[in-house]
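During the no-cost extension, the postdoctoral fellow (Dr. R.K.) reprocessed legacy sequence entries with the updated structure-token encoder. One reprocessed record is reproduced below for audit purposes.
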Amino acid sequence: MPPPPDAQQPPDAQQPQYGQPQYGQPQYGQPQYGQPQYGQPQYGQPQYGQPQYGQPQQQPAYGQPQYGQPQYGQPQYGQPQYGQPVGYQPAPLQPGIVPLRPLGLGEVYDGAFRSIRDNPRVMFGLPVLVVAIGSVLAVAISYALMPVLRPMFSDLFTSLGDTGDVSAGQMANLYSTSVGAGVGVWPMTFVANTVLTGLLTVSVSRSVIGQKIGIGEVWRSYWTRSLLLVPYAIAAGVVQTLGVGLVLLPGILLLTTGSTGPGVVLTLLGALGAVVFALWFMVRTLLIPPAVVLEGQSLRSAVGRGWRLSRGHFWRLLGIYLLALLIVGVIQQVVAVPLGIVTAFAALSEGSLLSVSLTVLSEAVGVVITLAFLAPVVALLYVDVRMRSEGLDIELARAAEAS
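Re-encoded structure tokens follow.
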């Protein structure tokens, strides 16, 4: 009977000597006993924190690197990541006034102020220029209406009797000045708000990628697109007015027929519904002006495009825009209240050209403040919505890199 396999081998071949591992155990690049790697101490000189000869080392689990060794896929400090060449620099995250990613609330407002500082000639100078020209026309219209309005208000306050310390003539001067200035300022305000909103949107869109555009280039390239906002604004105003009127109509009809109780309740509910409708319509049409000016489509296509962009972003757009309106209102009051007091004293003393000019100036200051802040906010909301839903940030990064 042949001896067992173990018995056929010599004793020294059955147990491997220290430092000579069995087949399949040594890893590639690990030297045998007595041949230390570069920088490692020889036998008898243990490393710091490592057990000496005869004390078994604790091997880490498979896939877990030892202390001081980086994990797989994580490069060491100062070494480029896998797939990135040496010296590679990523595209700039913020080439302009806002970072090229979905924006937060503070970034929208900060970007609006940055757009004014980045291009003040367009963002502030252009509204001042247009509003100044419109104000001259408004003063002329208002002053021309004064001879017609003053007798009407004078007869009204005379028929009312004693008005206290203020005479009927002074009240007539005050109201005729206010109404005349309002009539003269309305066309200027309407045209400035519609056309300048489109022109300022162009400057903001360039500032997002770190570019500047002059007043001449803005007007030459985009005045036709901006003028399209005039018929759109008229149509939107008519639709909104009809919607509010239809909501209020049932309560008004009940009041006229003598049903006081139900009419009052229905009117109050209608007023609440009118506010809700006005806010809903305002938000859904908020992004239409930037779409009309920047995307180069027909008016009908651009209106549908802006309407679709606001879908799914209603509450965010509503909150940011309402807060922007509140900020603008506070700034307007700080500036307009002192000027309004002076205007009121001038109007009470005499309904002259000075009082009309001061009234128009107060309105013009409010228009400039509104445009300088609200137009950038709307433009940045348009950019933000497109970055969230269409990946516009990638296109903007490419445009910024190309420029």
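The longest helix spans residues 120-160. The radius of gyration is 38 Å. The remaining legacy entries will be reprocessed before the final report is submitted.
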